[in-house]
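May I ask for a sample protein chain and its fold as tokens?
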Amino acid sequence: MRVKERGEILTAGTGLTSAAAVLTGTVALYVALVVLGNITDFGTNQQYVRHVLAMDTTFHDPDLMWRAITSHTVQDAAYVAIIAWELVAAVVLVTATVLWVVGARRGSVDRARRVATAGLLMVMVLFGAGFLAIGGEWFSMWQSKQWNGVEAAVRNFTVAGIVLLVIHLPGAAGRPREAAEAPPA
């Protein structure tokens, strides 16, 4: 491994930096396409959100049904909030992807890592807290055969989590671990 003086581009870790850029860009593309689909085919996932919140395809356990939200206004507001959250996450992740590419050329990807972390955490909050915890457990989405998004939520949460781990590996900063831990000369 060859490590140059401060301010110069480091040759070690560029493969992992490239991987971080590509993986961040892949999640950005995915989330952007989800937003596009939700906007251009608004009704499909609107029905999904309505059914999950209404709990109308669950086991109808009286001990749980008090949680159901049947107001179309509230259901639609929740759906629009989800789309807005996804849109912001997509913009943050696209920005992070650009920062990875630019930062790799300049030898500093710290800002890319911070922005990517924020975007990936937004995805994880949406699918972990929003779909798995609130939708899956609070609104018992797991009980529905037709409107069960638990598997998709786990997939999205897992992918974002893996990318988050990759971007925080020591080599993803464009320098090897030894150089990152060594005191400045």
